[in-house]
Automatic annotation (TrEMBL):
This is Uncharacterized protein. Keywords: DNA-binding, Metal-binding, Nucleus, Transcription, Transcription regulation, Zinc, Zinc-finger. InterPro entries: DNA-bd_dom_sf, Methyl_CpG_DNA-bd, Znf_CW. The keyword Cell inner membrane does not apply. It comes from Ceratopteris richardii.
Amino acid sequence: MKDSAHISTLQTPFAPLCPQDAENPQCDKIKCTGSTEFRRTASICMEQTDTVNNFDSFDEAASRGLPTVKAYSAQCYSCLKWRLIPTKQLYEEIRQTTTANPFVCSRASSWHPQASCSEPSDLTQGGGLLWAIDKPDIPLAPAGWERLLCFRAEGSGKFADVYYKAPTGIRLRSMREVERFLAEHPEYVSAGVKRNQFSFLRPKPLNPRHAKRRTSENSRGMRGSISLTQGTR
């Protein structure tokens, strides 16, 4: 793996983590010393090699040296430990309600029977992973649609772009394009597809070297987040 990025919506500054990755889940050196001023969401992480970018295949994105999704994770709202999430679908389901229903370790029991706040963290910052901050409360894409992320090359003005892939295969890059598509294909509106099911909010890089501009959002996390790990292979 060449580069990886981890995307999260956090609510307290990231605590120092040891330089190991998800391949060594026994490391449990998260120091919960961050501010607790913000306490509204929780985060998630899962191993994922599916294509979740603007390319036709994982290999195409990797061949261009761009980060591609490797894992999704969630940070427990209570203990701040990270839990790997097994599928993109489950990650997105958790992300859509992170403010109203913060993630906690016990929610991982359906795929990780031993999951609890007393267990070591599944994922640690470092180990070649590039972490980024995802947005909370992003709605699930309509049935048959897919929300895609295209990560830009290091140093670009933007860290990533968001697209929606329609059932027809067309990719929509903005809310304006979504509105135009629905106007031209009213059958989707009749089937229940609504404008509020789309969000083009982009993740933010935790490491500022992946964007020209560094903001406070780039350098801190917040308690209770949703995250995904990306990288090139």
